[in-house]
Here is the input.
Amino acid sequence: MTRPDNHYPLILSFASGKGGVGKSMTSVNTAETLNGMGYRVALIDVDMGLSNCATLMNEPSGRCVSHWIRGECCLEDLPQECQGVTLITGSDDPDHQDIPQELMLEALDQILIYLSDDHDFLVIDTAAGIGSVTLWALERAQLGVLVLVDEPTSISDVYRLCKHVYGMDPTYPFACIVNRANSEESARQTFKRLNSILNYFMRQQAVYLGFIPFSQAVVQAIRDQLPVMRSARERVAGMDPLTEVQPADDHAGRQQNPEDQTLEEVAAAEGTFAALPEADQTLIQEFLFIAQNLISYAKKLNQQTA
Here is the structure.
């Protein structure tokens, strides 16, 4: 992997409107997958007072942005190194809600600047709803990543979030990840329903990034407090190392950027997953596919700013 001299990090804000759709799980696993592919990734949890990213990564909650604002630590004390991913937590204490909003947003701006030189991707995990911190995150991002599930409330809440943002910036770039889908076909149908609503009422369209299949591996990884890729590697470590990689062929018809690694090459670099159940292999392939799309998007942006 090569980085151009005009390197800029891609800032991604993960949002959902509705809570309980797996947004933090998606943020954590996207960050871990990109890091596993050789990219330097920072994950910023801005769900103030109710942060979950550290828990999902089985990491203790260290110093938070709220501690820095209160003068209890330095900026350099905030980053936690979590198996290669840099984690910064906004606040893990609901009592920190009394911090003035303008101070928090100014501090978050300084953190983005601080992280930019040393990372390729800055992943911001936002809170549910359309609060001021979520809007800040979307405004700072080059891409808003919408996480939704096949439920009317999820689709309607994502639509309301988009409507609010498009009202401020009609050119805002949104992309979608459909979580807990039974198949790619059902995921694309969910995505099409959202896009039909956006097109009918606002003449807008989001981009499809991929889907996360409903999987017991995700449920178990959450219980074990391990990202999916890390959990898969640990399971594979106890299996026959001579097993050949046999990636799922679900992506045979999908277009790939010729400059990027193929999914088969990435899968081989990630380790031997062929001994895992087929459903788990498909899950891993989908996270890799999402990451490939984000890498392609980042390269295009960097080319435009060259």
In short: The longest helix spans residues 278-304. DSSP finds eleven helices and eight strands in the chain. The radius of gyration is 19 Å. The chain has one domain: 10-304.
